[in-house]
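Task 17 of the worksheet. Students: predict the tertiary structure of the chain below and write it out as structure tokens. Keep your answer in the requested format; marks are given for formatting as well as content.
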Amino acid sequence: MNRVRREYIRIGSRIHSVHPFRVIRGHTKFLQIIAAQTFKQKEREMGVSKEQVEASLTSKLNPVHLEVIDTSGGCGASFVVEIVSEQFEEKRLLERHRIINAALEEEMKEIHALSIKKAQTPQQWKPISQLSETIPTTEA
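Model answer:
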């Protein structure tokens, strides 16, 4: 008597049985659900999202301007940050970077690379933004 060999898929700590004939006959809904669960689990394990970084910085530093770019292709391992906050007043650049790193303490456990492009005070940032508005454009 031939027995059908079952396939097993492990998702986290749970093991699911997959019957090979059901897959062949086109009953792939179960595998689609498993794939979706696996993707969600991997997403949780992989790293932080751009929104998490933005929320953390916004709640702790109350920035006037904040731009976070995920340079890792969506896996949450690498970010570029541009931030303008009043908390940077009378702080040197190194101190500003330390403040940002402290604000992202929990996220930094999962982030591989954080590039702080700008960490400025509103007074430092305003002249630059005003300058870009006053530069005349030449039309051909």
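Marker's comment: The beta strands are 7-11, 14-18, 65-70, 78-84, 113-120. Residues 29-46 form the longest helix (18 residues).
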